[in-house]
Structures are given as C-alpha cells and as structure tokens.
Amino acid sequence: MQKIEEVYLFYIDKFKPLYAELVALNNKIPAELLFEIHAAFDHISRYYQLCNEGGEADEAEFSKRAYSHLKRGLLDAFKLRLKYYHNEYEQLISMPGLDIIDNGQFAADLRENRHKITKAASKARLDEGNKDIDIALENWYIAYEGIEEFYEKFFTNKKLLWAKQVAKRYGFKTLIISIAISFLAGLAANNINYVWDFILCFIK
C-alpha cells in the first residue's frame, strides 16, 4: 500500500534532481513538468483536506494518483533531456578533428555511447506504449546514464579544442598545398605548350 511519504520521497529523490537540471539547462521551467507537479500535489492536498474535515480518505488511493502524475512527469523530463542531448550531439559531431583524438578511439567511443543512449530510449518508449511505466523508467535511467557519460567524457573533453586547432591548421596547410600544386600544374602545362610549339616549328 502506497503512502504519502513514498510520494514525497519519489519527488525528492527521483523527480526533483532531473527537474532542477532541466531548469538550469534551459533557464526556464518546462510547462509540462509543472502541470504534473501541480496535479500530483493537488491530490495530496485534497487528501489532507478530507482528513482535516473529519471525512474518510483513502491514503493509498490518493498516493497512487499523485504517484502516477509524478511518474508521467518524470517520463516527460527524460524526453526533454534526450532532446537537449540530441542537439548537443549534433553540435559535437560536426566539429572537425574528432578522429585524431586518441588515435580514433574518442570517435569510436562516442558512437558506442550514442548507440547505448538511443537503444535504451527506444526501449523505454516501447515500454511506455505498452503501459509498463516502471520498466520504461528503468530504461530511461539507462539512457540518462549514457547522457551523463556523454557530458563527462565527450562533450566537455579538454582535447576537443586541441583537435579543432590541429584540424584548422591541417586544413590551412592543405589549402596552401592545393594552390601550389595547381600553380605548378598550370606552369607545367604552359611549358609543355611552349615546347610543342617549338617542335612544330621544326616540323613545318
């Protein structure tokens, strides 16, 4: 039998940390999460209101309703976190020089990390569609672990700036070499024309 205390602990331990992270990342409160919080605590307030008025109130039933709203809110929070991750992954993967970090191991690990996240998130969405919310949350936590790893190991990696600078220098050198080759090729082609004209003079 669920109790109000369990709902409170779920809010403090599970919901609130991710909620606070989303607010910090986007600098605003996600409306969909705020709705679920209000709905959950509205059930709790009605329970206490009935108790204070001397009426009968089933704590387990009110707790179940409040719990349900917070779980749905947590599902929405994970989806928002995944959305932010996708944007930042695209930003990272478009950076030049990733393949030269740790002899290519960085890029390989990054792809493996993305596979872990997308696989767990896809499984979570399927579970949610099958109304298996608890299993869906377990898979969302696996995806979230991958997202945390993405930030700690990849997105904020100190070697990114070095790789970007190396790639930029390499790109500049490549441009100079291409120009030099084009110039020499043109010069050679012109010389060949001069030589051919000289030979034609003798043939005539």
Condensed summary:
The protein is 85% helix and 0% strand.
Secondary structure layout plus pairing:
Layout: H1 4-26, H2 31-52, H3 59-93, H4 105-129, H5 133-155, H6 159-203
Helix pairs in contact: 1-3, 2-3, 3-5, 4-5
Using brief descriptors, characterize the structure shown.
mainly alpha, 6 helices, 204 residues
Please give the alpha-carbon distance between the first and last residues: 109 Å
SSE pattern = HHHHHH
The total count of strands amounts to 0
The helix content, as a percent range, equals over 70%
> Given the structure, what is the number of helices?
6
Instruction: Provide the residue-averaged pLDDT.
Output: 85
Based on secondary structure, the structural category is: mainly alpha
What does this structure look like?
Helix content is 85%, strand content 0%. The protein is mainly α and 204 residues long. It has a domain at 1-83. Helix 1 runs parallel beside helix 3 (59-93) and helix 2 (31-52) packs antiparallel against helix 3 (59-93). The N and C termini lie far apart (109 Å). Mean pLDDT is 85; it is low at 172-180.
